[in-house]
Amino acid sequence: MLRHRFASALVVCLVTILPWAPALGSEDGEKPTLFTGDLGNIVWSLLTFVVVLLVLGRFAWRPLLGALQKREDFIRDSLQKAKEDREAAEVRLKEYADKLSTARAEATAIVEEGRRDAEVVKRQVEEHARAEAAAMIERGKREIAIATDTAVKELYTLSARLATDVASRVIRKEVDAKQHERLLRESIDELSKAYRN
Question: Residue 35 belongs to what domain range?
Answer without folding.
Answer: 2-86
